[in-house]
């Protein structure tokens, strides 16, 4: 069971790294994006967790990258409307996508929980590993929520650009959102394997104790018979 437990621990570590990549997407790291919009002027809009970047920005940046400040919640609908050659979002659709970006604060929380689950599962005992699996379960649920919200937010933007730009712009989901999806899978299997190996180890320990209790009375009776 030790080998399988190591696999589960490794998956928890991998999930924390993947969630870290999603967390440090634009504007922290310019090239990592949840959604990438290629504009007809040669620039690229990278939307991330805490803002966005314009790569190879046109005037007045003369081909340099420009990024927003790091903050919780921003307005991708307004950004697309002001930079892309597409129609404005309707009020409900645009307002929904803008409001939901505030929930991306869950990304660093999920990353922290996944790393805590990894540390506890790797260096604690059996009961500590069970607690680590419980923390991984919380991180997995939050990642599921984030995954649904992120695909909703950027799915709206992706659909709008594809439908109303008349082929002049192109939107693609970035590596950041695929890292989030991979973390969701890694968390699930890591959590399941750690929990399963801990339960199996506990069952084996109980069997060992029970077998010792059965053997001891037999040995005592034999010793008394020999003395007699």
TrEMBL record:
Keywords annotated in UniProt = Membrane, Transmembrane, Transmembrane helix
Classification via InterPro entries? pH-response_reg_palI/RIM9, SUR7/Rim9-like_fungi
User: Can you name the source organism?
Assistant: Neohortaea acidophila
Residue ranges annotated as transmembrane are: 105-127, 134-157, 177-201
Q: Name one Pfam family in it.
A: SUR7
On whether Membrane is a keyword of this UniProt record, the answer is yes
Signal peptide limits:
none
User: This protein is called what?
Assistant: Actin cortical patch SUR7/pH-response regulator pali
């Amino acid at each position: 069971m030790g080998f399988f437990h190591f696999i589960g621990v490794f998956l928890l570590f991998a999930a924390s790294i993947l969630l870290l990549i999603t967390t440090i997407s634009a504007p922290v790291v310019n090239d990592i994006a949840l959604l990438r919009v290629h504009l007809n002027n040669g620039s690229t809009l990278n939307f991330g967790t805490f803002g966005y970047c314009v790569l190879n920005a046109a005037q007045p940046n003369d081909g340099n990258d420009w990024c927003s400040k790091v903050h919780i919640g921003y307005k991708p609908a307004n950004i697309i409307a002001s930079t892309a050659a597409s129609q404005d979002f309707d009020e409900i659709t645009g307002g929904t996508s803008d409001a939901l970006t505030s929930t991306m604060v869950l990304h660093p929380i999920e990353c922290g929980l996944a790393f805590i689950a990894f540390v506890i599962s790797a260096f604690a005992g059996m009961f500590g590993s069970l607690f680590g699996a419980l923390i991984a379960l919380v991180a997995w649920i939050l990642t599921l929520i984030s995954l649904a919200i992120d695909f909703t937010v950027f799915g709206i933007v992706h659909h709008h650009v594809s439908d109303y730009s008349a082929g002049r712009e192109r939107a693609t989901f970035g590596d950041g959102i695929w890292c989030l999806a991979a973390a969701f899978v890694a968390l699930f299997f890591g959590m399941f394997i750690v929990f399963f190996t801990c339960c199996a180890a506990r069952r084996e320990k109980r069997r060992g104790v029970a077998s010792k209790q059965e053997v001891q009375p037999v040995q005592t009776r034999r010793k008394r018979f020999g003395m007699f």
